[in-house]
Amino acid sequence: MDKPRLRSWVESTISELQGSGQISVDPTGFYEATALSRATVGSCMTPEDGLFVYDELRRALRAFVMDGEMHVFYMFTPVNISGFGDVNWRIFRSEIERLDESGLRVLEFVGISPAFVNKMANSGKQLPEHGAEQIRTARTYRRFYAAFQLRDLCNEVPIHTVARKFEIPRGFVQTLAQTCEGFAAGMVQFCATLGWGMLKSVLEHMSDRLKAGARADLLELARIPFVKSRTARVFWENGMQNLRAVAEAEAKELVPLLLLAQPKRYNVATAEDERYQQKLLLRSQVIVEAANRLWAREQQADILEADM
User: Fold this and answer.
1) Label partner for 300 (CA 20 to 30 A): which of 20, 44, 132, 236?
2) Which residues pair with 23 in a beta bridge?
3) Do residues 261 and 234 lie in contact, with contact meaning Cβ atoms separated by under 8 Å?
4) What pLDDT is attached to residue 307?
5) How many C-beta atoms lie closer than 10 Å to residue 224's C-beta?
6) Backbone dihedral angles phi then psi of residue 103, each to the nearest 5 degrees
7) In 83-228, which residue ranges form alpha helices assigned H by DSSP?
């Protein structure tokens, strides 16, 4: 490669990075990273994805829809979502029709047109992506469609049910959940680097729900090993609604609850099986011990905070 061409490429790239606010020039003439570029790199995003996320988060700071959850679920859906299957416009239309007023405001805010979704559902066509603007629009529609799946997962809908509802392979839903968890952590870091503390707190709370796959009332229980969303819900509905309750329980008291949390086929086939009961008892002991450690840690933290 000849030097003039290389120099031209380098100068062009530097100009683009300066123009997008990802690098700046200090008083001595040296280039330095801006907060935006540090947030982009720290969140493991490409410069293009970082700019897209930055633009969306800045708009969210001006008018974040706080009286519902769809805005957060949309923000937590990865930018590049094309690998998770095509949009089923018929299902998309059906989900939009079920949205409450808060969800509809999110649609308008991010640029989703129900009329366009209806048109696509009737035509059976796929999104056009022939230019930068169309690609950006397609990305928004794909993200919002995937956000519906993420919403269901965080509301304790089983993976197989979500897969059946959206007519996609179960593996796609599992991969989406895992990818969203990592992307959510990146979004929280992005906000922290830019000093957007309030938005970071909102996203952080929902990130905990995403990890637990549960509603907010189960987050404390979902911290315990072996207590996933389904088990946490069974515990909650049977009076064990916090760490202390589980920590103070006898291991044998948890065995019937763990049985209730199993798929129905296990309830029928193995409820009387002695070896299976023993296995659940051992798991119950682990759960109680872990709850005790977590509870003791919280008590210690409260004591230290009170002494400060």
Assistant:
1) 236
2) 33
3) yes
4) 62
5) 23
6) -65, -35
7) 89-97, 101-110, 114-123, 132-154, 159-166, 170-194, 197-212, 219-222
Length of the chain: 308
Backbone angle region of 258, left / alpha / beta, with phi > 0 → left and psi within -120 to 50 → alpha: alpha
Terminal-residue alpha carbon distance, the chain: 64
CA 302-303-306 angle, to 5 degrees, is: 85
Alpha-carbon gap, residue 23 to 32, rounded angstroms? 6
Amino acid in position 171: G
Give the type of residue at 8. S
Q: Are 13 and 6 spatial neighbours (Cβ–Cβ below 8 Å)? A: no
Structure tokens at 218: 């189960």
Q: How far apart are CA 186 and CA 80, in angstroms?
A: 14
Give the model confidence (pLDDT) of 276-306 as tens digits.
878 888 888 888 888 888 888 877 776 766 6
pLDDT in tens, 152-192: 988 888 888 999 999 998 888 888 888 888 888 888 888 88
Answering whether pTM is above 0.90, one says: no
